[in-house]
Amino acid sequence: MDQREKLRQRIARAHQRLAQMDADDVYKAQRAALRARQNRERRMRKQRKRWAELVVLSGADHLDDAQLVAALLRAAEEGRTSQLREEAQRIGTAYLQRRPLPPDLQ
Asked: What CA–CA distance (Å, rounded) separates 47 from 69?
């Protein structure tokens, strides 16, 4: 085996190692993206569950979807002023003191 052939083999092995390292980097990036997406989805499921339990806790579970959406839209619209936000906070806090949240919602 002459010098040129040895160099070609070394170059070929270096290319293989580089390709493997690139593949590892791509895999790590994909795993990180998957974990980030799963964490986002987990947080959203937890938040949706919390919202649903708060609707039940507040006694608003008897409302149909349109009524519930209208109540939330009204609250969001009225909550733009600091005075109304503070009043809503005070009312909500007083209600939750009388009827505390379940431990998994705190």
From this structure: 17
Mean pLDDT of the chain: 89
Give 19-72 as a DSSP string. Answer: HHHHHHHHHHHHHHHHHHHHHHHHHHHHHHHHHHHHHHHTTGGGS-HHHHHHHH
- The residues spanned by each domain of the chain are 1-46, 58-101
For residue 83, what are the CA distances in angstroms to 65, 94, 95?
A: 28, 17, 18
Amino acid at the residue 90: R
Q: Considering the entire predicted model, what is its pTM?
A: 0.62
Sign of CA dihedral 43, 46, 49, 51: negative
Q: pLDDT, tens digit, for every residue of 28-66?
A: 999 999 999 999 999 999 999 988 988 888 888 889 999
Q: What is the mean pLDDT of residues 59-83?
A: 87
